[in-house]
## 1
Amino acid sequence: MSLIPHYINGAESGSAERTGNVFNPATGEVQHQVAFATTAEVETAIAAAKAALPAWSATGLVKRADVFFKLRHLLLERQDELAAILTSEHGKVLSDAKGEISRGLENVEFAAGLVHLLKGERSEQVSRGVDVHSVKQPVGVVGAITPFNFPVMVPLWMTATAIACGNTVVLKPSEKDPSASVFLAKLFEEAGLPAGVLNVVHGDKVAVDAILDSPDVKAVSFVGSTPIARSIYQRATEQGKRVQALGGAKNHMVVMPDADLDSAADAAVSAAYGSAGERCMAVSVLVAVGDEVADALVEKVASRVGSLTIGDGTDAASEMGPLITREHRDKVASYVTGAAAEGATVVVDGTTQTFEGDGFFIGVSLVDHVTPGMKVYDDEIFGPVLSVVRVQTYAEAVELINANNFANGTAIFTRDGGTARQFEVDIEVGMVGVNVPIPVPIGAYSFGGWKNSLFGDSHIYGPESVHFYTRSKVVTTRWPDHTPSQINLGFPSNH
Ligand code: NAD
């Protein structure tokens, strides 16, 4: 069985001292072992990134951009190969894997055009003969820690901008589907990135802690579940690092009585069950305003899910693949089986659907009459389970969402522009869709939630990530202009 190695300073490395299993979730078989880095191996990767920093940060902006233009081309050329890796280790269907790659490409395109955003400011003659200008300089070595659910896109959220800003990176992808990161690092180098600028180490808490505790790592980007995001934020900020740690989600989709209920039901099915619900922007709560809307939506969603094809992601007929692990599948199932005991109504029970073989499959579930306080509502399930919460008014819908501790994404479905606009004002959530169920911002904007969905000040990718991955410096300049100088012990004033 092959060992997925680390990729440090332009070469594969890694002992088999500590390893983990990488499954094919569609068959349930272990297909690879992945090396788990020791502290010393992570330190080697950080040292490689540190050594590569002076030359890379001094590389001209146009030359840096050139790497991203070439990377874009290579990613497009090799997307089938990369999508096949995603499907075999994550389980998502091939079309979804390609969708993920195309969203990751937006970050590469953004990085290719970054020169514009690295411009500083300049003010002439702030005092007689004195000018001021600001510059944006790289922060240094960046630690990037990513989740299992987007093995290409989330590493690109971080690496593209960090590298374009002149930083070097140590990436620690999810140990559950680690191959895509090594593939990406090799593609970066094929595109012209010097060895050591992007290093990949695999593993668990040991590897992550080595990144967080290294004084040579100056900034940490993390995406994953809320408890880990919180602990990473605390540990790394205590050591004076700059940190953005994106956490979990519980995304609500409000359906107003005036909405087109058929398109709302289509949107809810797509957004709740796409990628088996393993998206941080998946809709997991349908908030129906009024019982009439609720009854109609439940009936429409239930009638649509019967025809969904669930199967191996490599089969072109499959619309939804398996979950990432057997344990996760069983945990997702426990929320559905527990929901009835909590007083909810299980309208479609995906746990009873049977599948051939040992893959980590589960059917989709729809649970009605869910209320806050039930585990099925309070926890992030991260599987194909859609809860319906019934409210009577718009105000109740807003109150429900604003009381939730997660605040990643939300959406409203309505034909009324005034209601939509008010929702945009009232709602305390980082990303909002109006008749758009998964409002993931295009690469030129930044991505991020509020409250327990993000710890730190900067959203990820886009303009906010340029801010995150650079430090600004302000330079005040006076050149001899042949006027006589004099001593003045007063505080420098521009008046
Ligand atoms: P996870 O938190 O289990 O793992 C994320 C990363 O942290 C992995 O690299 C993992 O190896 C590492 N890790 C796990 N336990 C650790 C520990 N105790 N100490 C240090 N590092 C540890 O998340 P996951 O299951 O891989 O991904 C799913 C989660 O990610 C969901 O909660 C989902 O909502 C969230 N997510 C959020 C966003 C977002 O943008 N907000 C995007 C994608 C996924």
## 2
Amino acid sequence: MMKVTNLRKRFGELVVLDGIDLEVQRGEVVAIIGPSGSGKSTLLRCLNLLEKPDDGTIEIGEATLSAKKYSRREAHFLRQQTAMVFQNYNLFKNKTALQNITESLLVTKKMKPEEARKVGEALLEQVGLAHKADSYPITLSGGQQQRIGIARALAVNPHAILLDEPTSALDPELVAEVLQVIKAIAERQTTMLIVTHEMAFAREVADKVIFMAEGKIVEQGTPEEIFGDPQNPRTKKFIQQVGAPLELIG
Ligand code: ADP
Ligand code: MG
């Protein structure tokens, strides 16, 4: 369902993705962890071409793209396979919660307004914000804004959702509500790649954990393997530094 082969990206002289190979099965939840600057965000951004990869191939859903040479049409088709949830929500400030969710349905999918509204309302319900349909982002808490961001990503029914540190901009007391929403979505067999510093969450929700350092996947395995018995010295050191997750979220 997702297969990335030899993905490479550099910014000038700096090699940021140094040959990433990755396979994700349908319904799988993959947590990507690693030190700051290891290329985690760039990896997600290359998957939907927010950054242009230099080399490699990306297969997601029905789309296949070769980074060396691709057409606009291929790029457009690949982008349609995923939806991104950003650290800073990236909501449209001049649109209501509902309008943020339905925008892509109306514009990209050319859905009828009535139908889009129904889909949007169901998604608001799913993230616990049915009562905020007509609220503007500025009137919502960070946690609520991020839940709208997640609903917006789900709206287009993508093959996979890419979440880049979805809770790291939140005040600590707002983290749990967003993680709960992500966990509920994960349990419904949504394919997800999530870059996160929430180790307890990764341990509980992920099927697979990937540890990245310096543009490479250093180690991957089940949460038990990566957190409980890391093999690579760099993984060990990182897990020690961030603290192995002992407590699980409720
Ligand atoms: P992570 O998400 O793991 O913290 P990033 O993917 O954001 O890492 O960044 C990896 C490296 O690439 C960092 O050294 C960062 O400074 C650099 N980088 C990221 N984006 C750009 C850019 N647009 N231009 C130049 N360098 C960048
Ligand atoms: Mg990042």
